[in-house]
Design brief:
It is a single chain. By secondary structure, the chain is mainly α. 81% of the residues lie in helices and 0% in strands. The protein contains 3 helices and no strands. The two termini are 16 Å apart. The mean pLDDT is 82.
């Protein structure tokens, strides 16, 4: 049962990550974004910060799921 839940959760996580596509950015855009982030002057700064926090949390959750799946598989 635990294995099934972990497999379903990891499948949903993987599907969500694959469906997100980033647009190509230029070096100028990346530098501008990083400077704006450091100075907190980007448009919709709070929303962007929240999205960045969510991105980090999802990556950490994915690593945790992967680790647990390896434990179960052993």
């Amino acid at each position: 049962m635990k294995t099934t839940i972990l497999l379903i959760a990891s499948g949903l996580l993987a599907a969500g990550l694959v469906s997100c596509q980033k647009k190509e950015t230029t070096v100028r855009e990346e530098v501008s974004d990083k400077v704006g982030d450091a100075l907190n002057t980007r448009d919709h700064e709070k929303l962007r910060d929240a999205a960045e926090d969510i991105e980090k949390d999802v990556k950490e959750a994915g690593k945790g799921i992967k680790k647990e799946l390896h434990k179960v598989a052993e």
